[in-house]
Each structure stands twice: as structure tokens, then as C-alpha cells.
Amino acid sequence: MTSDTSTSIADTPSADTLPSLAAGRSGSRAFKNNFATALVWLAFLIALIPLIWILWEVTSKGFHSVASITWWQKDQSGALPIGDTQVRGARHAIVGTVEIGLITALIAIPIAVFTAIYLVEYGRTGSTANRRIARLVSFMVDILSGIPSIVAALFVFAVWVTTLHQRLIPICVSLALTMLMIPVVTRSTEEMLKLVPNELREAAYALGVPKWKTVVRVVLPTSISGIITGALLGLARVLGETAPWLFLTTYFAYLTYNPLAPSGIASLPTLIFGQASYMSGVPISADRVWGAALTLIIIVLAINLLGRLLGRLTRVKS
Q1: Contact call for residues 108 and 181 (beta carbons, < 8 A)
Q2: Distance CA 226, CA 235 (A)
Q3: Contact 263, 257 (CB under 8 A)
Q4: CB of 119 within 8 A of CB of 137?
Q5: DSSP secondary-structure letter at 88?
Q6: Do 231 and 185 contact (CB within 8 A), yes or no?
Q7: Which of 5, 41, 42, 150 has its CA 20 to 30 A from that of 109?
């Protein structure tokens, strides 16, 4: 027995007897691994270049406007397109952007969450009719996620003005942005609901808990952190949209809180768009453009950080 074992060990080819294995194949695999790692790092660094360049340009050119307290306290009252010597403020645009964004979230988030609940909790395991409806709804969400923002604005214009014969007001922008926000929140919520283990649902059913109560008491609390994060990311995504603002309302250079005002409402995208035509020859307009761009980045970044913080705080601990 000992002799066989020693023989088998002695017959086992070592790395010295198989130089191709020691230096050939393993060396080739190591080379391929290092080469692929280098390509991944190179692609990562290339992707970072435009991001860093944009952040540097916007921050360096808009910081002195944002750093002024007047920027946050005043609006563009008295501003002249040419010949003005003051940057003035962007309070009206900040208020308008955040207000319309919150109205959009109030409309879009409940629709998106209930749609995701239907797709996951009733569409996957329900009757044949439910599964067919769920496939149709999922297909429509995919289509909705791909439509351009100008098409959403045009649809709202056709319904609001052509069909209902109403005058355009700022809340029409919220209706268009809702169409853009619903698919984002629906898909993120759907993925979070799918992550909830089926054992939790089955345990609740075994105790005689109705399905709707299982969704409310078990499924939603388990995935609430991901749902909040997805909702805030969807809000951050629509805040920078410009087409609905240009198509559905007029730029108002004064502070207003009324989303139904016929005079229109200001926003950071329309402030940038309105001043951009003068920025090549008017330094004050350029300062307003870069300041509004940096302010929009700060708001979107703050919403992203808030979403991640709320997601961490509301995460269900195992």
C-alpha cells in the first residue's frame, strides 16, 4: 500500500516536468487576466474624464455666483438682457424647480409603486388574465421609459389645450414629468419587490394573512429602503429636463409659489436656456448660466445623497 502510494506520488507530474503548465498556460491566463483588468481600468478612467471635466468647468465658472448670498435670496427682478451689471439671484428658479418636482413626485410615486405591486404580486402568480394584463402593462412601461421628453410635453399639450381647451399653466409641466418619472420608479420598485424572499410571503399566507395585508405589512416594509432610493433617483432624473418647461409654460423672472399661475413659473433649466443666448458676449449672462448649472447639480446631488441616506436608515436589519 505504501509502495503504491509512493509510486503514484512519484509518477505525478510536477511543474518542473511540465514547463508548459508552469510557465505556458498559467502565464497565459495571468497575462489575459492582467490585460482584461487593465482594459477595465482604462475604460473606467475614460468614463471619468467627461464627468470630472464637466464638474470642474461648472464649479470653477459658477462658484462665485453660487457663493453669493444674493443668489439664494433674490430673483431676476430688474434684470436686463444686455447692459446689466449684476448677476442677481436664482431664488425664483430654485423654488419653481423644487416645487414642480415635488408635485411630480406626489403624482408619479403612488402610481408607480401600485403598478410595480401589481406586476410582482398579482401579475406573476395570478390567473391567466392577470398574467396577460401584467405583460401588457410591463410592455407599456418599457415604451414609456423610452419616449423623449418633448413627446411627453407634446402629449400633455394635445390633451390639455386641444382636447380640454384649457390654458397652459405650470402644473402641466408636472404632468409631462410624471410620464417620465413613472417608468423609472416602477422598474426600481419592481426590482426591490422581487428581492423579497418568497418564504416571507408563504409564512404570512400559512398564518391566514390575506394577500393585500401581506403586501402592506411584510413585502413593502422589507423593501421600503430600495423603494425610497428609487423614487428619489427618479425625482433627480426629471428635475433637469428642459423640454416640458420650454413647451408647456413661460419663464417668469419673479418669485411665485403658485403652480396654477397663468403668468408661468421659473426653473433652473429655463433660466439657463434664457441666458445662454447672451452668454457669448455678456459676462453677466455667462455667470448666471454657470451659476444655475452648478445650483442644479447641487440639488440633484443632494437628492441622491438623501435617497442613499434614507435607504440606509430604513433598511430592514436581519
Answers
A1: yes
A2: 14
A3: no
A4: yes
A5: -
A6: yes
A7: 150
Comparing C-alpha atoms, which of 236, 133, 226 is closest to residue 180?
236
Please check whether residue 111 is in contact with residue 183, taking contact to mean a CB–CB distance below 8 angstroms.
Answer: no
d(CA 77, CA 89): 9
Q: Are the CB atoms for 248 and 153 separated by under 8 Å?
A: yes
CB 181 within 8 A of CB 112: yes
Which pLDDT tens digit goes with each residue over 6-57? Answer: 444 445 555 555 555 555 557 888 888 999 999 999 999 999 999 999 999 9
Residues 151-184 have pLDDT tens digits of: 999 999 999 999 998 888 999 999 999 999 999 9
Cα(99)–Cα(114) distance, rounded to whole angstroms? 24
Q: Which three cell numbers stand for residue 248?
A: 408647456
Q: Give the contacts of 192 (CB within 8 A, at least 6 positions apart).
A: 223, 226, 227, 230
pLDDT over threshold 50, residue 287 = yes
**The total number of residues written for the chain in this structure:** 318
CA atoms within 13 A on the CB side of 241: 30
Q: Is the pLDDT of residue 118 over 50?
A: yes
Cβ-defined contacts of 308-314 (< 8 Å, 24+): 308/229, 310/225, 310/228, 310/229, 310/232, 311/225, 311/226, 311/228, 311/229, 312/225, 313/225, 314/224, 314/225, 314/228
The residue type at 279:
M
The DSSP call for residue 123 is: T
CB atoms within 10 A of CB 147: 14
